[in-house]
Every structure is written in C-alpha cells, then in structure tokens.
Amino acid sequence: MENVLTKQKHRRGFRFYASIYRKILVQDLKSKMSYRADFIISTIGMIMTNLSGFVTFLILFKNFPSINGWDYHHMLFLYGFSLLALTPVQCFFDNNWNLRFQVQSGDFIKYCFRPINVFFYFMSEVFDVKGLGQFAFGAGTLIYAWVNIGIPVTPLLILKLMLFLLTASLFMIAIMNAAAATCFWIVGSGYVMVIMFRFKDFAKYPSSIFHGVFRILFTFVIPIAFVAYYPSLAILESDSVPVLTWCAPALGVLFFYLSYKFWMLGVRKYDFTGS
Amino acid sequence: MNMKRHLALTRAGIMESLQYRLGTAVTLFANLIYLVLVYFLWKAIYASAGTDVVNGMTFTDTMIYLILATALFNFLEMFVVWDMSRSIQSGKIILDLLKPMRFREYTFWSYSGSHVVLFALTFVPTFIVVLIVTKGAIPMGINLLWFALATVLALIVNFSMEMIVATICLYTESTWGINIVKETIVLLLSGASIPLAFFPEGLRQVVDYLPFRAVYDIPLTILLEKNGSDTIEGLLPMFGLQAAWALILTLAGTLFWNYSVRKITVNGG
Question: Is the pTM of this model over 0.90?
Fold first, then answer.
C-alpha cells in the first residue's frame, strides 16, 4: 500500500497540482463572492493601509530631503518594489493566519488525510483577492519612480526585475511560513506572526541604515533586507551591484526550502500527537 | 455604584493576562527590537536633514515621542472588535448581555485588568529605560501628573472608539476589514506612526480637532512639555479637547449600541 502511494506521488507532476489548485481556487472564489460586503470592506481596508503608508511617506519627505542618501524617487522605487514583493505572500499564503486556529481545534487533521502534499493543499485553500489591490498600488508606484529616475526600459532590465521580484517575495513567504509553523509547538503563537508582520514595515527602507548586530539579524536571520533593498539594487545600481544581491535568488530558494521543511516538521509532530 | 463588582472584573483580567507569560515575554522582546529599528530609521533621517531641529523637534524629542507612542499603543491596544465578532459568531454574547451589568461597563472593566498588567509590564519599563538613556530629556515635574490624567482620558477616548467600531460588527461579519480601517486611521492621525509636529500646516489644522489626537499626541505632548503645555493656558485646550471627545464618543457609542443591540441576530442561540 505504502509503496503504491509513494509511486503515485512520484508520478504527480506540476500539471496535476496546477489543475488541483485551479479547482480549489474556483471553489474559494465562489464562497468569497457570497460575502460581497466583506469583500468590499476588506478591499477598502487594504487600500487604506496602502494609502496611509503613502501619506506617511509624503509627510516624511516634506520635512526631510533624503534618507541615508536615498532621495524621494529612489525611496518610492523601493517602496513600490516592496509592495510588489509582498503581494504573493498576501495572495497565495494567507491561510497561514488560520493555521493556529485549525491546529488548536483539531480541524487540521483533514489536510493530512489527502494523498497530496499537505503544505500545498493547505495553502491552496485560500486565495486572498485583496492582495491584487496591493499589487496595483505597488505597480503604479514602481512605474512612477522608474520613469522619474530615468531608468531605461530594456528587455534585460525587465527580465531582471521579474527575477528579483520573485526572489524577494520568497523571503517574506519564508518568514511567514516559519512564523506560522511555530503554532505546532507553542499554543496561541499568533503574536509571532503579528511581530513578523510588523517588522516587514521596515522592508521599504534601505537596510544600509542598520548597523552592527542588527544589520546581520535583519539580513540573515529575519531577512527583511532581502524583501526590497538588496533585490532592488540590481536595477537601481546596475554598474555596482553588491554580492549579496547576486546571492539573493539562491538564498531566497534556500530560505523558502528551510521554512517549508520547518512547516512540514510541525505537521509530522502534529500527526504524532494523534489528536 | 458598587466598585467591588468592577474591581472583581479587573482582578480576573489581571490573572487572565498573566496566564500567557511566554507570549508577553516574546512580545516585550520583539518590541525592543522594533524600537531599535525605529531608532536606526530616525537616526538616518536626522543625519540627512543637516539641522538638529526640524519643526521644533530634536532627534531626542522625536525618539522619546515615538518610543513612548509605541509603549502607549501596546498598553492601550484593545481587541474589543475581535472579541465582539467572535462572541457574536459563537453566540457567547447573549450570556454577556444577560449579566447584571450594562454591557459597556462590563466590557470596560473586563479590559481594565489587562491594562493594569500591560501598563506595569510595558509602559513603565520603557519609560524608565528612556529616562536613563536620554539622561533627563523628559522633564520631571508636575507634567507627570498631567500626563497621567491625559492618559486616563486617552484610555476612555480609545475605548469609546473601539466600542463604536465593534458595534458595526453587529451589522457585518467583515471584522478584518473594519478593524484594519480603524487601526490605520487611528495610527496615522493620532501621531503614533509619525509625530503630528511633522504634518503639513493644512492637514495639521484638521487633525488638531479630531479625536484621534487625544489618544497619543496629547499625552505625549504634555509629557514633553511642548506646544505651551507647561502653562495652564496651554494645558486647558488639550484637556478640553480630550474631555469633549470622551463625552461625545461615549454618548454616541452608547446610543448606537442601544439602537443596534435590538437588531442582533445570533445563529443557533
């Protein structure tokens, strides 16, 4: 039996998972449509947070000409970049916020009974539409900044932007996966996620403002420096790209993999309690 | 008014919040790191400004303001909206409504315990650290007394706003959306994320009369003795604004609640 299952699992490739994802996604969207008021209010809420972040930004630059050598448009670029990089975690991995409730109530066991990857199945259950508003906001900001800085539009740069945006988003996904997975060990660990979510507010500032231990902490332990700062340097300073920027894609994959392993370790531990 | 009943609720709240020791410890530690981030950010901002004083605020002033605003935020933060929506969904709210005390009073006093704990565990330590690190940048005099009074008024204004927003939950299940709208508006317009002194003139004039300022900006301005709050003439309008909003919001909140509670529907009962 075990053998047959593992065999089947091996045969399931990308296409199998893509078709499952589409089916679950449609179900989720259908159920969301029945709460139209909730959808509208949540979208307004999302727009408000982005707007307020923007207003804070404008007020700051009304009083101060630059931050650590970064002028208004470069900071806007960083800001737009961070919003875009944070979109995937918002859209595709939002179910992490429900993990602790499901684990605590025991409902989580249902995910373990399906012959598909638990992590995949759990995450595919929720697609957060609000994230699309953030995406639009970020894209607008980034394009505005791009034009005003006067960066040329070449296919190579666009390709670079795509690659580094994808890379950047992996870091935030990894942070949130790891933060959510703590609930397998600590009851009511929601505060860990709240804290990490607050730290991400600093992703939109150049990490060069941090010094000493904290620079290392926010580069390699809680990698918010990689959510916008290092990846965006690939486009902003094409001639003198720091080494860490080049390392970003590999590091992103590594962080994501580690967080996935940590998450799955929690699942295995949950199985053993047998509740 | 029978104070004993109320204090029993306070005591229960204190015991409840002491239950989650690990959570409190981790949160405290994370707050320290967060404050270090704030410190680095503003240090960089002031370093590029070229002058020591911007809009009447020195770097030290800004830091004290923002650090204590965070400390105040941690201590004033309430989860009335979340708790309300959860107890509506589970039906527990019926039990609370049947209690021999007005619902508003009951909620207020249930939270008072966690306020006491958080005040002792987050605000006081932060205050002492700031005091030592800045070596006397916070004036120590009668302003401390005024600050305490302003904080109590801030607590009442904050609670009233929370209750009004929580009442909206009786109409819709969109708790996340409503809560995030409230939080964003309060944090921005109260000066918790960027001191109100930096706001442009036009916006400032509007924000000065809104209730949000009463929660963070007024207590902190009084503590730092800015904007003429070291004189009685300067203090009176600030306390006046706080008291007026506390009164208006309490009244409005009570009316809104009394009107809405009749419409409440609980699934399953």
Answer: no
